[in-house]
Amino acid sequence: MNDNNYYLKKSKAVLREVRKSVIGKDDVICKVYMAIIVGGHVLLDDIPGVGKTTMAHAFANALGLKCNRVQFTPDVMPSDITGFSMYNRQTGKFEFKQGAAMCNLLLADEINRTSPKTQSALLQIMEEYRVTVDGETYDLPEPFMVIATQNPIGSIGTQKLPESQMDRFMVKLSMGYPSVEDEITIMKSRSENDKRKILSECVLDNGDIQAIKEAVSDIYVDDSIYEYVANIVDKTRHRENIIQGVSPRGSISIISMAKAEAFLRGNEYVLPSDIKNIAVETLAHRLITNVAGAAGNEAAKKEITDILRMIPVPKMQEK
């Protein structure tokens, strides 16, 4: 437990660093970090200008990760992401030229503005942590994750991500508008330094990140918690208003996120409250409801909330 305490302190230092750049969004910051330390990908869905890209850069700095940013537009090609082979006339051989994915943190900015063909280039990357170019497969650096941002579907020039890709995001989060007090703080910060850079300093290195991942993996999950999650997920597959329920990948994701939450609380085991606290963000984006358009997002969240009320919560004694 001593090692866990050490890495818990390091984790809290990371969160403090990110909060220097992202003001008033502590809950979102924590959940992004939770996804990072369990090796998951994050989708930040919100209107422009609320700090999605700033948060991604802040985490890259605080974690000491190599970050590549791709601004997704209709003319971005799959090879821009995966890389490509180029013929070298001097050697007479084709050589692999790395794409943007060869990094630790790939910031896919406005991912829903590019073509489906380019979006599909991310499917293998996000699932297998490798790229295949001209029949050759290349492993991505460790750790690796994708933080993608997207504007709401109602925005001009956007298109819906395919279900297969949505399912690969461990969580879907929304930052929302700042409070009046936080907005004042943001404006003052900008006026004091018009070229304000991200203030986050490196707190962890790759060895620390791997050790934290191992500590989180060792968090105990009781059989009653597994059954609780299985019942929640099963319910999504038999609801009248849900066309497509949560996949097994979603079940694995919610357990992983609950372990990360328990770790940040300083516990060595998962409680039902950990499941409840991250259920909507982990499961709702995997549902397809009979409500069309942007309203479908809210309908999916409501379905998960209603299911949580229905499923009996296992009684556990604190250890």
TrEMBL record:
All residue ranges annotated as the ATPase AAA-3 domain in the record: 41-171
GO MF term list: ATP binding; ATP hydrolysis activity
InterPro entries per UniProt: ATPase_AAA-3, CbbQ/NirQ/NorQ/GpvN, ChlI/MoxR_AAA_lid, P-loop_NTPase
Protein name from the UniProt record: MoxR-like ATPase
Residue ranges annotated for the ChlI/MoxR AAA lid domain, each copy included: 235-299
UniProt source species: Lachnospira eligens (strain ATCC 27750 / DSM 3376 / VPI C15-48 / C15-B4) (Eubacterium eligens)
